[in-house]
Model the fold of this input.
Amino acid sequence: MIDLHCHILPGIDDGAQTMEDSLDMARQAVSEGIHTIVATPHHQNGRYINEKNEILQRVAALNEQLLQENIPLTILPGQESRIYGEMIEDYRNGKILTLNSTNKYVFVEFPSSQVPRFTERLLYDVQAEGLTPIIVHPERNSRLLEDPDILYNLVNKGAMTQVTASSLTGRFGKKIKKFSMDLIDANLTHMIASDAHNVSGRNFHMQEASELISAEYGMDMLYLFQENAEAIVNGSACFKDTPEKVKKKKFLGIFG
Ligand code: FE
Done:
């Protein structure tokens, strides 16, 4: 299994703090059947700045450690960038890192309770640059939860999205779990990933989420997500079903 979103690089964001933490995470990932992780440290989220070259060096260092420790896991470079006005300029200046450095897919994170006004324009510009934007964990954004049509519109215009495994397994509560499943139902998400930060509170849950997906939606859906993860790492085309609007809950009456 490939995990596209993980804060496994030590000491550069709120994920692993030490190399020992990173190795603990690596061992846990392997125990869940993960063989490849895209390391995606935060960038420009108001707390952390992690630019391309720095990430590339740290990924190489972690891979070396994994080899020494005999942990059968490969780390690929990536980045979780908060949406910001200078993203395109910074991409051109070599500060933004695409997933596995293929210049095809780029992670975009929204603030947790809003979708900035310039989002549609920026995601358009990202695509004009030849990149596919992947909106990370849309299910955890309270604005999108309120108004899923905003996400429908962005996906309809070419953005992809990644739901977090532990959202599906219920770590963030029932509402977010339900919304995650609504997004799968409406073809508004194209992959799952762990967004793991550590081995305690925010760990992988990839196996559990995969089992849930195959039980609820069938193996085909799980394969589709897994194939998309592979395509993203390879920089090739993903499979995208026609997006639909999230169905509004039927009103059951005043007492319903
Ligand atoms: Fe993250």
